[in-house]
Amino acid sequence: MEQHNTSAHRVVVLGAGYAGANAAGRLARRVRRDEVEITVVNADSEFVERVRMHQLATGQQLKARPLTAAFAGTGVVLRAARVTAVDVDRRTVAVTDDLGDHEIGYDTLIYALGSTVADHGVPGVREYAQELTGKASAQRLGERLRALPAGATVLVAGGGLTGIEAATEIAEARTDLVVALAVRSELGDWLGEKARTHLRKTFTRLGITVHEHTDITRVESDGVVTAAGARIAADTTVWTAGFAVHPIAAATTLAVAADGRIEVDGSMRSVSHPDVYAVGDAALAEGAGGRPLRMSCASGIPMAWAAADAVAARLTGREPEVKPIGYTVQCVSLGRHDAIIQTVTPDDRAKPAALIGRSAARVKEMICSGAAWSVSHPTVLMPTRRRRIVRADNMIDTATV
């Protein structure tokens, strides 16, 4: 097992998406770097703006965001490696990189490995469908779209935010393709009336066919089969019907939900292992109104802040301030010049008010850019307030420095 500064408290953060990167950067502002060693383990050396994968798939160039630049000046150490296992009883993480397999020890773990595509057991998804859960998959879809001739058909399966954004982006970028969207219920049924009306108008404007109340039971090389026995032809199927967490946590002794998410309290601390915190898509946390937080950037960033503040508080002899995480809006891009900003209650229920059109697109872009900016500037978002940690032997008292 690799050895580091044995006198420092070792915090290991698994994953550097919106949640993991924000947790690491914020924690670095709360503790002294000579007393707390923060290591981020991530398979990619760059931060990936997951909310822009539909843009990447349609050939748009995204700004490069090296994680080394994001963490410069923070004291956070980036370890480019893939996590293969976690042993929460021995407090170790198994990783692999270009040099082989390694083991990293920790005192506190922040688990932020995120999610991947959920096939829901539907045959053919893995073999024939494209997906958009990461940079590599978005680039593969982009290659596939570029290879399609005029008149080819693209079916997007899944009517959530990812599906709607993918369908509209593809239809806008490739007006020569025939684009369709299959949804299990009604198009945008979680939105308010104003937003739903605008969404339908946009789909009509872009020429997107909507197959409502359609449950796909099999994906084939040239289309899909529905639960009703109907067949929808497609040269390319894009699967966006939900997310699934990586199975690593479920293989440990951590308390996890049926879907594999780590069960946490209001401070994002594991209910079974007090030295483990989980944030983002990997965590099952209760939000405002007692409803589970949904897998999203809108959940992941405040979860990361809560975890970082809780770790810092407990290390420095204080109890964390726990506040329920709530929502204010849902943002849906509809191509580059159209969007919906749906106002919601703190427990994520749609209100009547919504901003639509070009103004909404500008607000959506500001929100997406702000989320990426928060990762690239972790030392700017808050004043420095580092405290001494409280060691087991009580030799160090808490003191603001």
UniProtKB/TrEMBL annotation:
The entry's keywords: FAD, Flavoprotein, NAD, Oxidoreductase
InterPro entries noted in UniProt: FAD/NAD-bd_sf, FAD/NAD-binding_dom, NDH-2
Residue ranges of domain FAD/NAD(P)-binding in the record: 10-308
Region forming the signal peptide: none
SUPFAM superfamilies: FAD/NAD(P)-binding domain
Top-level taxon of origin: Bacteria
Keyword Oxidoreductase tagged: yes
Single GO molecular function: NADH dehydrogenase activity
Flavoprotein recorded as keyword: yes
Assigned protein family: Belongs to the NADH dehydrogenase family.
Protein name: Oxidoreductase
